[in-house]
Design goal:
3% strand
């Protein structure tokens, strides 16, 4: 059992979370492990029980769980200023890095060497997403009911093109019903469900919702009043605000929905560019969902009027990051006082378990979507009533991308190489093969 020590000085909290922000590579698993080592094992600022308790709580919320866990720990140690500081320091290093990479991408993507480099990165992304699929499936699909939900979610998205929010929230609703009926079908513990008798903190939650609700919508109100609802900045803010509410199950889960909407509905970027963005996000510290900033930058950069492309891109990236992460602070500051009660909410746990199972189907859809669009340069869709079929043009098969994707798979699954090394090797491979 880990025993927590007295809370640190605020200046020390800032220093430690700045360090975590710059070292938080490796996706949620690596980030959570890093914080556990720094804050639980070495400094003992929170106990093992508190850490796991808060992690379970953050899994219940939409948004990146590692960033929200950092925010909760800061809140636990130094109240709102601690939570705000810890959450921002977790985001800002990656935000600055991916902004710089987005600028480079926007200006250099047409260059031969740059396109060749990202041929390899796109191919590596196929293997990286497949690894995420296998890892999450192994952890989440531990009952027949969960496996059925995962298959149903895949079919709903891949063959019927049902909206992502409908699939994941519908799965959550099914899970709540199943949990109330037979919790063991979802492998939920059926112990004592009594809740803490601590007072319900309605006042704190109401004030947090009001304050952070205003913070969330303030830039959108400014955009509406200055450039109007027909401008790309309004569409960016509106889309990513909606996305922030349904980002259950981690970044990979929501990428399929974001890619589908950004590529097909809005036309902000191509499928290949979407894969490039995920590759960029994999190489930077901070939450993987930061790839949204790259999408927002390119969307505004390519429709800049009345601004210059660079100013529009900056505004698009900033607005996207704002509306993506402001809700994360809202959830933590509004719901953290309820953490003990939520830990005992069986129906809520059931909904999360079912939703996590559905996420496996969502990521399977994303995996196939990336694979087809990376190794084929022309992909068509045909519909037969409610059914949708994705049909690649076999004449557009790119053997170089297929070879690099296979190489990346060997490096990840056989040699257990970490993601950044795989991206570097695949990028070099793209440069070499481009000479052929």
């Amino acid at each position: 059992m880990t025993v927590s020590t007295p809370e640190p000085e605020f200046s020390e909290l800032l220093r430690v979370f700045a360090r975590i922000g710059f070292l938080s590579f490796g996706g949620p698993a690596g980030q959570i492990a890093l914080m556990h080592r720094e804050l639980v094992e070495e400094r003992k600022w929170v106990s093992e029980e508190q850490y796991l308790h808060a992690l379970n709580f953050c899994h219940l919320l939409p948004g990146p769980e590692a960033q929200q866990l950092a925010t909760w720990i800061g809140w636990k140690l130094h109240g709102v200023r601690g939570g705000l500081s810890a959450g921002l320091l977790f985001i800002l290093p990656g935000a600055f890095v991916i902004f710089g990479l987005s600028v480079l991408y926007a200006y250099a993507a047409h260059l031969f060497w740059f396109a060749a480099l990202f041929l390899g990165i796109k191919a590596a992304v196929v293997a990286i997403v497949a690894q995420a699929l296998i890892r999450i499936a192994g952890r989440a699909l531990n009952t027949p009911v969960k496996r059925i939900l995962a298959i149903a979610a895949f079919i709903a998205l891949f063959f019927f093109s049902l909206p992502f929010p409908l699939v994941v929230l519908g799965s959550g609703a099914i899970g709540m019903v199943v949990a109330a009926w037979r919790a063991e079908l979802l492998a939920l513990k059926t112990g004592n469900d009594s809740v803490s008798i601590a007072p319900r903190p309605w006042g704190k939650s109401f004030r947090a919702v009001c304050l952070w609700g205003v913070i969330w919508v303030a830039p959108m109100a400014f955009v509406f009043l200055t450039v109007g609802p027909d401008h790309v900045l309004w569409r960016i803010g509106e889309f990513f605000s909606q996305l922030a509410v349904v980002t259950f199950g981690g970044a990979y889960a929501v990428l399929a929905y974001m890619a589908q909407e950004a590529v097909q509905a809005h036309g902000w970027l191509s499928a290949g560019e979407m894969a490039d963005g995920l590759g960029l996000a994999e190489t930077t510290p901070g939450p993987l969902i930061m790839v949204t900033q790259y999408v927002g930058f390119l969307a505004a950069f390519r429709a800049p009027e009345p601004f210059s492309p660079m100013i529009a891109g900056l505004l698009g990236a900033t607005l996207t990051t704002w509306v993506t992460f402001a809700p994360c602070f809202l959830w933590i500051f509004a719901l953290a006082p309820w953490i003990e009660r939520l830990e005992h909410a069986k129906r809520l746990k059931g909904g999360l378990a079912a939703l996590t199972a559905a996420v496996v189907g969502v990521i399977a859809n994303l995996s196939i979507w990336f694979l087809i669009h990376v190794i084929f340069t022309i992909v068509n869709e045909q519909r037969f009533g409610f059914l949708r079929f994705v049909l690649p043009d076999w004449a557009s098969f790119d053997w170089r991308a297929a070879l690099l994707a296979a190489l990346s798979g060997i490096l990840i699954f056989r040699l257990k190489m970490n993601v950044i090394k795989v991206l570097i090797i695949a990028g070099i491979g793209g440069l070499l093969l481009a000479q052929l």
